[in-house]
Amino acid sequence: MDGQILGLESFGCHDTFKRFFDKLVKSYALDALDSRDVSQKESVPPNKARHFVESALKSKRESHPPIGLGTNITFESRTVSGAALVEKDRVLHLSAFKREKRGNSNGVGYQRFSQRRRRR
Asked: What is the model's pTM?
């Protein structure tokens, strides 16, 4: 949005993706409406997307016991924070979000980007 990457969602199963797709689109659409910068219409260059994914891959990770199966992994770098549910060597779900303030360690947020932005 506005030439910036806000987040990344990845699902290990097509059926799970189908169940959540509408909710994800609505959430990101609401963020786009909240953004209100109608003058900014640039798309995200591929190198920015690559850098976002690389930052998530290189970030500090912590494993946590899950409620059910698998392992919950949280990760955080200067620019990205997120979480993944992993079972064996398969990522079942991964969410990564752009961090707004460098060096601010507020953990992983699971709410709309615009709500996280207002909180800081």
From this structure: 0.70
